[in-house]
């Protein structure tokens, strides 16, 4: 199986998360070890495992991104931020 087909399968998993209207829960990431086992021990299901890994990798990054957003309770509030210039390049 060519590397390009494997990469496209992984990419299809990443892009399939874009079709979801709501992010699946983080509990889905428990399936990642199962996908990795499929990739390494079942050569006939390698593309399916790569698709699953791509989907779960994108899910991990999406949840990580949403953890760093401001909470809804702070929406519309003024927030003061202070800082200082440490160095000028």
Please provide the count of β strands. Answer: 0
Please give the largest β-sheet.
none
The residue fraction in helices comes out at: 40-55%
As a percent range, the share of strand residues is under 5%
Distance between the termini: 50 Å
Put simply, the count of helices is: 3
Gyration radius, to the nearest Å?
A: 19 Å
How would the global form be characterised? elongated
Give the rounded overall mean pLDDT. Answer: 87
* Uncertain stretches: none
Order of helices and strands: HHH
Helix/sheet category: mainly alpha
What does this 3D model show about the protein?
- By secondary structure, the protein is mostly helical.
- The chain is built from 3 helices and no strands.
- The chain has helices at residues 3-16, 32-41, 46-67.
- α1 (3-16) packs across α3 (46-67) and α2 (32-41) packs antiparallel against α3.
- The chain starts with a helix and ends in a 22-residue tail after the last helix.
Summarize the structure.
The chain is mainly alpha-helical and 89 residues long.
């Amino acid at each position: 199986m060519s590397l390009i087909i494997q990469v496209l399968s992984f990419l299809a998993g990443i892009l399939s998360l874009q079709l979801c209207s709501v992010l699946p829960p983080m509990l889905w990431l428990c399936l990642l070890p199962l996908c990795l086992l499929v990739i390494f021990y079942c050569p006939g299901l390698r593309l399916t495992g790569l698709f699953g890994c791509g989907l779960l990798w994108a899910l991990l990054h999406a949840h990580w991104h949403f953890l760093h957003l401001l909470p809804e309770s702070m929406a519309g509030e003024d927030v003061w931020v202070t800082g200082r210039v440490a160095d000028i390049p």
